[in-house]
Specification:
The protein has 9 helices and 2 strands, in the order αααββαααααα. It is mainly α and about 220 residues long. It folds into 2 domains: about 70 residues, Arc Repressor Mutant, subunit A; about 150 residues, Up-down Bundle (Four Helix Bundle (Hemerythrin (Met), subunit A)). The chain has a two-stranded antiparallel sheet. Helix 4 crosses helix 6. It is globular.
Length: about 220
């Protein structure tokens, strides 16, 4: 394999393994052996190792000296903490993006919002919707101009996405995506006007409502 091909393989394998983790192909606490993954996915051990390091950075994989890499187990208390962090961090990210992003980044964000909404309407596929949501966050992170804030949001987003995909019903997830799309339509004109404070308020209200809905659903399942 050429050096130019390796980054593409790393990116595609990382995306695929993340999808499989969210789909429940590997159970919480299950060991992710490098040799086994290399055989299952027909990739090299160095590619597997790099992917596991990336997923560990996102909190989806836990690495220990005794067991190597295992699927992170996320319990209800951890979900509550992640939702709390999300409610605090994402409105800050949205405000920074609104106030600091370039016009080109704002247009790219609007395009990402439109693609996300189009997928909700025209594709009965949660995985495709999640991919567009990842694009949405990528543009948001780039335009906010804060590596520390973007990194913190990226980790909680990845961990919550894995938990929600595994433990919440697809119908509930689809409904939450529709609510998110409604919020995007509401907040986009505010962001275009560069009103960071108002965008922060709308985003914080949505984060609080979404967290409450998720916790109600999880408690109802017990």
């Amino acid at each position: 394999m050429t050096d130019a091909a390796r980054p593409t393989l790393f990116v595609s394998f990382t995306a695929q393994l993340r999808i499989d983790l969210e789909a429940g192909r590997f159970q919480p606490g299950e060991r992710l052996g490098e040799n086994s993954l290399a055989d299952q996915y027909a990739v090299s051990r160095p590619t597997v190792r790099a992917t596991l390091q990336e997923l560990a950075r996102l909190g989806l994989v836990t690495r220990s000296s005794g067991r190597g890499a295992t699927v992170t187990a996320i319990d209800l208390d951890e979900v509550k903490m992640l939702l709390t962090l999300r409610s605090q961090l994402e409105p800050m990210l949205v405000r920074r993006f609104t106030e600091l992003s370039t016009n080109a980044q704002m247009e790219a964000f609007a395009d990402a919002v439109g693609a996300f909404e189009h997928t909700i309407v025209h594709a009965d596929n949660l995985a495709a919707t999640r991919r567009h949501l990842d694009d949405f966050y990528r543009v948001l992170h780039e335009g906010a101009g804060s590596w520390a804030l973007a990194s913190a949001v990226e980790v909680q987003h990845a961990m919550l996405a894995m938990y929600r995909s595994r433990d919440l019903a697809p119908g509930f997830q689809a409904e939450r995506y529709r609510v998110a799309a409604q919020t995007h339509r509401l907040i986009m004109p505010i962001m275009r006007q560069r009103d960071g404070r108002a965008a922060h308020i709308v985003c914080a209200r949505h984060m609080h409502e979404d967290a409450s809905a998720v916790l109600r659903e999880l408690l109802a399942q017990e």
